Amino acid sequence: MNPIPLLPNNFYHIYNCGINGTNLFNKSEDYEFFLKKYAKYISPVADTYAWCLMPNHFHVLIRIKENVVYKYSNADRSIDAVRWNEVKWETYDLSANLAVWQAYEASDSVKIPLPDKHFSHLFNTHARYFNTKYNRHGALFERPFKRKLIEHETYFQNLIVYINCNAVHHGFCEHPIEYPWSSYHSVLCNKPTRLKREKVLDWFEDKKNFKHLHLEKVDFFEMDEWLGV
């Protein structure tokens, strides 16, 4: 069965794991590398509302952005490339940039991004890094990656708690604040973040309720079954 498409303005729970349960992250720098590349490949096409990186899998809650296109940029005066990965493309929000919208209507120098390909770039980049660093070969991530359309905001609270508390569920800690590789900290701190912190807090009403609901028991096995992980 083909996976469902990632369509603009829809929310998705995205999940992937290491092939045959192999680790995706061994050291802190592995998590940091993945997050850096996530910002490069995923942030231009999706807003992120929750994330958690575990040693052999990860979860994110995203919304695919609307009105985003690639516009060809040759600002560095390089020779026009033939291969896709050599072409300089930049993302633009059409709703905020009239000139790009006009170019989109009039020229083939603008194209619609495919979020699935962005995730493929992320996974391939991390796999090359990980295989080189740990002297391994072959695929690193399961394919295709799992995704579930989240159609109602009533699910968002439970899903965010489920994601942030994944390390608790797997026995890595007793409270999500003890685990460094989730969005729990980003919601509570005041540091700049790409996470849609204000929207998350709107769903939980405030930080106090956010912290309180992360202490409530979640039926992780029921959630696993619902999400198909």
How is this structure best described in words?
- With 229 residues, the chain is of the alpha+beta class.
- The protein has 2 domains: 11-64 and 115-227, Alpha-Beta Plaits; 68-111, no CATH class.
- The chain has 9 helices and 7 strands.
- A 4-stranded antiparallel sheet has the order 2-3-1-7. Strands 5-4-6 form a 3-stranded antiparallel sheet.
- Helix 1 runs antiparallel to helix 3.
- The longest helix has 20 residues, at 115-134.
- The protein is globular and about 45 Å long.
The CATH class of the largest domain, by name, is Alpha Beta
Could you say how many structural domains there are in total? 2
CA-CA gap between termini = 16 Å
> Structural class, from secondary structure content?
alpha+beta
Stretches where pLDDT is under 50 for at least 5 consecutive residues are: 75-88
Given the structure, what is the number of helices? 9
Number of strands: 7
| Physical arrangement of strands within the biggest beta sheet | 2-3-1-7
Strand content bin: 15-25%
Short overview:
With 229 residues, this protein is α+β, with helices and mostly antiparallel strands.
